[in-house]
Amino acid sequence: MDRQKLLMIFGGAAVAAALLTWFLYSATVAPKSEKLVQVLASSANLPAGTRLQKIHFKKITMAAKDVPPGVLQDEKAGIDRTLLYPMGLNEPVLAGRLSSVSGADGAASMIEPGKRAVSVSVNDASSASGLIQARSHVDVLFTKPGSMLEAVTTTVLEDVVVLSVGRVVEPAGAAPVAPTGGTATPAPVSSSQNRAVTLLVTPEQARILELAKNQGRVSLALRNPKDESKSEAAEPPSVTAESIDPGGAYRSQRLKMQAQNRLRSVPNLRDDQAWAKLIGEDIDPNKPAAAPRPSEKKEPPKPRFTVDVFRGDKHVQESFQE
Questions:
Q1: 0.90 exceeded by pTM
Q2: Cα(first)–Cα(last) distance of the chain, in Å?
């Protein structure tokens, strides 16, 4: 083989190696051009119940393959709609997290269809020391006041979601947006006085809760939101005084019987023998008992007669008695 053919073979092999290296580099290392789109995102941390305005939106660029379904791309589609769930900074605005175009404003938009919002008054002692916050899960306990034999505590509702504590619809730590578009710290809820906790319940549960509020004392028991267990008994679980003091009913009944016996043992002071026994005098069994004094009968009043007497132009009434 001559020298010229040998050079041509080596040259072709070098070109093929260069092409192969370029294709391999472009497939693994070189940046790929992706389709990018602009979507709407939140310009700050927004709490649930916020009525969206233009200052709440900003546009961010995302790869088309990473765009979540239902994201808004036009500000007109989100203005004057209400957030049903809180949003973080730079979080894409999804249509499913907003109220309908004709929906109610504010917290009313957070009430699920078929549910009602009912408030109960609680304090630290009746609300897990103030640990209950918005979106917590609680059980509702009803205590009927009365004596130890009448008092009873019953679990009337289980696994109920808290809509708000006072007027705060966000858990502690969420920063609501100030009117200027910046962030502001939520006002702390005072735990030293009574406050209203609003619960999301069905219409039937709303009637039960309203009756419990007016017939006794209502308290809330905080539960794990992942705990979906409920009592399977036909009647709600309840606790009476017998549960905390097993002998209380017996002692109360015994004291009641002792009081009745003491009343029976009181002597009749109108009886001469009972009186003599009470003051320590000797009683003569041969002494006849004193005859009861006959009651004096009062004579009925005599009838009176009235006579009209006319003397000229004078009229006089005179009374006579037999």
A1: no
A2: 180
